[in-house]
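chain below, 902 aa
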Amino acid sequence: MIGRQSERAVIAEALAPSAPVASLLLLGEPGVGKTTLLDAAVEEASAAGATVLRVRGNAAETELAFAGLHQLLLPVLDRAENLPVRQRVALLSAFGLGDDPAPPDLMMMSLAVLTLASQLASARRVLLAADDVQWLDRGSCQVLGFVARRLAGEPIGLLVAARGTHRPDWLDRSVPELVVPALPPTEAEELLSAQPDAPVGPARRRLLDTAAGNPLALVELARQAARDGGLPATGHVPVTDLLERTFAAQVDELPAASREALLLAAAAEGAALGDVMGALPPGTDVDVWQPAEQAGLIRLHADRIDFRHPLVRSAIYGAAPFAERRRAHLALAAALQGDPDRRAWQLSAATVAPDASVAGALEETAMRAVARGAMAEAVAGLERAAQLGTDPADRTRRLATAAYASVLVGDLGQAEAIASRALEANQDPVTTGWICGLSGLVAMLTMRMERAFALVDSDGLMHPAAIGAGVSTIATGIAYHSGSAAQRARLRDLLDRRDTRDIATHPFHLWDLGVTDPFAHGAAIRGRLPAVAAAPGRLPTELHTLGVLCLVLDETETAVSLLGELVNPQWEDADAFHAGMTAADLAWANVDAGRWADARLGVERLAARFLEGEHTLGSVRALTVLATLHALTGEPEPALRHAATALAVTEPAGALATVVRARRAAGLAATALGDHAAAHRHLRGLYDSTGAPLHHHLSCYAVADHAAAAVLTGHADEARTVLERVTAEVGDGASARLRQIMDRAAALLADPAEAGSLFLTALADPVGQRWPFERAQVWLEYGEWLRRQRRIADAREALTKAREIFDGLGAVPWSRRAEAELRAAGVTVESGRPSALRSLTPQRQRIVRLAAQGLTNREIGERLFLSPRTVGTHLYQAFPALGVTSRSQLRDVVEQDAAAGH
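prediction:
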């Protein structure tokens, strides 16, 4: 290899066993030498005894679910028999090889790939090399992204090459990148001189200028100049176009049979050699490939055909007339009878007019992709099926399904565009309501709240026959997030007229009631929730709906359980599901339950996407979660910054529920800073000028925090008015959690002589312990009241309980306040130290807690989607921080942490 010493050194350093995470992304224009560098790294790894698994993306297989992953693992797929059962079943099902008819678990399948690589690496180091990933199918990319995030502690390297200069969106930013530059002039001269019959004089200078340091261009233009006696006068042409012209000219010189064979190979790239041979005219021998091999255009293997460079394939395919390409695709479709997915796409490429049979084959392929968890490929198949279909109803159904699949994977722009096309194609009034609901959902997720409600509002919205379509749940969800009193009034009127005889326990009906009037209907719904939530066979949309309903009604543990089934924070794309809404919902449930590490883990990436410009309702809600956590854990500056950023977007959009969350986060941050005037200002913004809750539900939960700030700033009378208005809104419908909050507010605002009994009322219900931070706030303020009443012994007991809970949670500002009160009560207190367990990263905390329960590394890995070796590395690094030397001591660590108040 001429030159590239610095690039090879970067690759060697990035993939060295000593690297914290052995991975690297190569970027650059076509022909610049990415594949050459990747090949060199592969050769060096193989020479050093490593196991190398390779995959090369190709444009012909972009829509085939997990085609790239199959190529990567094919050499070791027999080793799948050694995987745990669930992982093996998921992996084989993704390739259509399993016997289980159920859709495979995408995350379990991703874990299977990681475990398989880790098992191989236990014998010798493994290198995963992925070239031309811009053409890999989306499902394979997601799996590679999953693996890339979990390489720490593994003797596994990952080398990825992609065309262009933009990082693939699925690859974690922690993976370093190298943009491969053009060769410098001296090395370009050296490479040109190494070519046979290299030009001299002005022709040489022209060739060097034209190639602009692109190694492939230098080699191919030198070959053309030697063959033709010079370069054609083309003027300024992009290097890529020039190379394609050069390759096309070489193909033109081949025999007709070889050209036909090459076109078939270009149309079928990724298919087995036997399939391509089957599409050739009967009697064709493998010698047909010899001229192309001799010309250096392809390499023939026993099972496949490799083009020398992707531009060779695109040149061959692009230069052929459409009629010839169509014949090639039809011949391949005929040869691919045993591979229905590839056959469907070959037929699609050959079809120019509506064809019901081809459309049906594509829809079947798309639904198989859905079953494998490959939503992006499913959307592509459904769109093409809709385009080729002959029945308007089929076209509408396919487009609507594609739009909903786009929502599920978080591509809202695509979802909106496809839904618009579905509406144009639709001729069924009943279907119109569902498509409008889908469009309304997208509008809500992109924070166009008034438009969202206008799209879904209709007199038939609450008809019981339409409950299964879920349009009413979209409408009530929009009204909840907008906080619009007019929208709620409209929905109340429609709900009052709904015939509920056959849908009384339907999850969507319970949702409609619960989010529209949580205090009026909450008690009745809570009585039904256990049975409804436990019913088997719930669809993901029903699980999500029930999980968020539990969050709204303060069935917090159930909310965590249900939502965790859909978006475990460890999952690679958990924050993409439902455009991030489910991840944000789960994070809020974890905040309420005191699982702050899990909450942070679930929203950090989603919040980062908001800060990078992805302004969706899901991402801004994630940012408010992060702001709240910063405030609670003693990082008020970023909390205030994030809250202000969220408000700048949500206030103009009319997303009132998130406005209230952001203002409350700012109020908590100001409280942490001791700026009680600012805290009061932020918290007073959760109520209107009359003191009524700005948001009919969420504002009520800040009434005690507002009362505390109001008392400290001389606004107690105003806070009493707010409490009265909240009490009127809630009526008899308060949950145990909200009763605890309202009793705390009443105690703070009462005459000192009466406050004690009100604090005890707030503490009386043991169920209130389920919300540890709010329970600790009551203990703290009760302790402060006791100390002022000179009941020092009782004050010490209450303040100690508060401090223990705050310490366990990591609520640093509140813990310090409890310490100060204890000192004032005559207790010698050491400065609070964060729990050793909670000083670990969120992921490491989860591993320690599971290990303390007696789970093995393999069992922990399956739960958290890590390899057993990575689990072992985390535990090994956690032991010194926890002051333990063996696994058996972890139970004591976790129990001590729990005794400290969590």
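The longest helix spans residues 636-653. DSSP finds 45 helices and seven strands in the chain.
thats it, cya
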